[in-house]
Amino acid sequence: MTVGEVAEKMGISVRTLQYYDREGLIPPSALSEGGRRLYTDRDLVQLHQILSLKHLGFSLGDIRNRLIPLDSPEGVAEALFNQAAAIREKIETLTEALSEVETLRDEVLQMKTVDFKKYADIIVNLQMKNEYYWMIKYFDEKTLDHIRSRFDRDSGTAFIQKFFAMQKEAIRLQEKGISGDSDTGLVFAERYWEMLMEFTGGDMSLLSGLMEFAESAEMSAEWKEEQKRANPFVEAALSAHFARTGIDPFPGEGAGV
Prior knowledge:
The chain is mainly alpha-helical and 257 residues long. Among the domains are: 3-67, Multidrug-efflux Transporter Regulator, Chain: A, Domain 2, CATH 1.10.1660.10; 139-245, no CATH class. The chain has helices at residues 3-10, 14-22, 41-55, 60-67, 73-110, 116-127, 141-150, 153-175, 183-200, 205-214, 221-245; strands at residues 30-31, 37-38.
């Protein structure tokens, strides 16, 4: 059989068969008088074996260098065991990728503009297993550029965790009836302000963006409820802290947060 006849019979392209020949996997058994490559039924059996092993995910290098030389059932079984482990790892990777694709799709539909920089940030945070990935779509470009330049994966995740921990602490203190201008409230405010300064790096212009972010109408109901519960204590504590220290977070715009 000619190369074309074998390719048609086995459902592969002529180019693929020629590549297998160049790789030394299945050279033709004979040449015609005109120099055309010719294959026999025995060659077809070998090609069937190669295609079957490729279907299982083995590379051509594995087939040529690791599988074909094997001469014991135990050796073949071990090769199959290792291949099964590699396939399971690929399945896990693809399952995670599928979840990330579906999550990003939902985020894209919620965003009002096409923004591939934000898409990339969301993907990175999904890979980090950062549960707060959804926050990215609400930040403006200036704030995101600041975050990218100031935080890496670990420090960014640590900061977000610190922020939510302080929000929960504010709710807890509020529910215990502790006032924002108390000693406890002032200690809390000092720590909260330090956290904000850690985020902004002292750039007060970023505070307005953070406030807009926190008050976004598009935030989830759960987020809004937690903010509603935490804000009275946070605002009272910060106001007391500013009055005590003379800090003006918005110079020229009046006091208050």
